[in-house]
Amino acid sequence: MTPGRVVFIGAGPGAADLITMRGAAWLARAEVVLHDALTDPALRDLAPQARWIDVGKRGYAHATGQAKIDALLIDEARRHAVVVRLKGGDPSLFGRLEEELQALAAAGIECEVIPGITAALAAAADARRPLTRRGSGRTLSLATAMTRAGPHELQRQADTEVFYMAGLRLAALAQELLRAGWTADTPASVVSRAGWPDSLASEHRLADLGDAATLHAGRPTIVVVGAGAAAAAVPAPQTGGLDAGQNGNAPSST
Prior knowledge:
Oligomer: single chain
Radius of gyration: 22 Å
Shape: elongated
């Protein structure tokens, strides 16, 4: 029997309607869906015919081993025409996509990857903070606050730095960033459950980033540091001058 196709779909960072149209169309064709822990259960409505398998990973909690996920993908693809691997956010960002692609390639199974909205973009939207700023925020880095081996030595990489999976390490992350050269008064934005209706955003200086731990406790958390976390400059309202509806090119009366 010819193996089927595995389609990796980025579900987006939160609510179901953040999935792309292409992702939704492929999900509707799925016979089996292997989904992450943080994908919105409402996405099941797009594939009611499919068998849904939870293969989620959560930090410091229950997690499905990567080897088991790889084996499930291969087994299901050998028995079904369309298998969807539904990942939170974007599959290529901190989603262990490489391991799964390698396993499927070794088994001779065809794959496709459909991008999704990553949590950094949703956090910026929820906080009303552009991640790039003309003149002051031209570079952007995305990193994890924790590696498999534990904390890692940080180096300042960009005008704006975004840290995923940061909720349990806010105070420690602040100290690491200070050692990396950021100043104590650097703006920091913390957003938990980005992309969901109940998202929370708070503003801090790097020196007091640890104060956000209580507010965002137990929630998937993104931290933005640097230019992209600064409050947006709002132009002062004009006083005097032209009346409403006029402009500088209005003809003079004769």
